[in-house]
Amino acid sequence: MAADLLLPLLFCGILCWGAVQGVDVFAAFRTGAARGLTAAGEILPSLIALVTAVTMLRASGALELLCSVFAPATEQLGLPGELLPMALLRPVSGSGALALFEDILTRFGPDSFIGRTASVLMGSTETTFYTIALYFGATKVRNTRHCLPAALLADLAGICLSAAAVGLFLGR
């Protein structure tokens, strides 16, 4: 019951605080909404390009080709081959990786080694390209310099160590 009232109370509290401070709340809301639409318009081309690239990657069979190339290395690291498509897609597309994650949990179960490793992998990696396109596009940062290599290295660490962490703490 209290949780149902939280959002309306917060909204009313903000309106009252603005009124007490002498702020034209509606004008401030309109200004913020206009800035949000402007930011969305600036970000949209990057998002469209990213969605197109992910769709082409999956439809062309390039994802399966990459999986077959990287499969021997990931097996040496202890990462199950069933997780490789999700691991490769995760830095590019959160929704694509989430669909693969859901399929993995349905096929193997959430308490299996593969299900647990997939859960840790999803939690310890980021949709790097989406995040960079979205936030750097919104702030008009053009020189990403070391950001992309560092973020991809962090994703690689999350991918490689997810199976090791599950094996260490939860067992196979």
From TrEMBL:
A Pfam family recorded for this sequence: Gate
InterPro entries given in the database record: Gate_dom, SpmB
Keywords, comma-separated and alphabetical: Membrane, Transmembrane, Transmembrane helix
Superkingdom field: Bacteria
Transmembrane spans: 46-71, 113-136, 148-170
Ranges where the Nucleoside transporter/FeoB GTPase Gate domain occurs: 43-139
Keyword field contains Transmembrane helix: yes
UniProt-recorded name of the protein: Spore maturation protein
Taxonomic source organism: Hydrogenoanaerobacterium saccharovorans
